[in-house]
Amino acid sequence: MAEGQSLRAIDIEKALLDPSSVFETPEDVLTNGTLAWDQKIEILRRWEYDAAEVSVAVEEGMPGDDAGLLRRILLALNELIGGADNERSGPSKQHGLDRSAVKGRP
């Protein structure tokens, strides 16, 4: 993330469509001062799904590098929501985090 981005407005639509085009790291989402709590969660959830897709592709032999990104996204989500109900993850290989798995605003 560019210097000072945590204090300036970001393109929410772009961040929702492609979080990595707006943020360098999941931690940058956490520290952004212009996003609401629910916006941060939604951006991280979408990034989590994208990272899970890459992880599955790498697992199945496609070239790529997930380099712990999925873990970092999940840690960022955990910091925001204080844990997720892992029993409510999707049945696919991506294990997408169901909206009901978010336990609510701290």
Write up what this structure looks like.
With 106 residues, the chain is mainly alpha-helical. Helix content is 49%, strand content 0%. The protein has helices at 12-17, 19-22, 26-31, 37-59, 69-81.
Nutshell version of this structure?
With 106 residues, this protein is mostly helical.
Task: Set out the fold topology.
Layout: H1 12-17, H2 19-22, H3 26-31, H4 37-59, H5 69-81
Helix pairs in contact: 4-5
What do the pLDDT scores average to? 77
Rg: 14 Å
* Poorly predicted parts: 1-7
Envelope shape: globular
- Terminal residue distance: 26 Å
The fraction of residues assigned to DSSP E strands is under 5%
Give a quick set of tags describing it.
single chain, disordered N terminus
